[in-house]
Design brief:
- Helix content is 36%, strand content 26%.
- A 4-stranded antiparallel sheet has the order 1-2-3-4. A two-stranded antiparallel ribbon has the order 5-6.
- A hairpin with a 5-residue loop joins β3 and β4.
- The protein starts with a helix and ends with a strand.
Length: 102
């Protein structure tokens, strides 16, 4: 299944950002994030200028896979949206929705 392959690729991105202690930004550069932790089932994103961490779970990602394929609006936090855009095939369309491009 394609969604599980993309999830594994996202875990690799999370691992590289975690190992190198790299940060990433939101679209407006107001949000600054880093990977706090990750496992095979979830990725925890720490907002450096806030108290709450954001969690992207494997189950939630797979359940919303169709929204990524068809570019349907998906109610996710800016931290998770910024992280998903680190994947080379996940881009933002003109309406601000994330789309997976083959």
């Amino acid at each position: 299944m394609r969604s599980k392959k993309v999830w594994r690729e996202l875990l690799e991105i999370a691992k590289s950002y975690y190992d190198e202690d790299k940060i990433f930004y939101s679209k407006t550069k107001r949000g600054i994030y880093k990977i706090k932790s990750f496992s095979k089932d979830k990725i925890v994103i720490k907002k450096l200028s806030g108290k709450l961490d954001e969690v992207l779970g494997k189950k939630r990602f797979i359940e919303n896979w169709d929204k990524l394929i068809y570019g349907i609006e998906w109610n996710i936090s800016p931290a998770i949206k910024s992280f998903l855009k680190l994947h080379p095939k996940i881009v933002e369309d003109e309406k601000g929705n994330l789309v997976y491009k083959e």
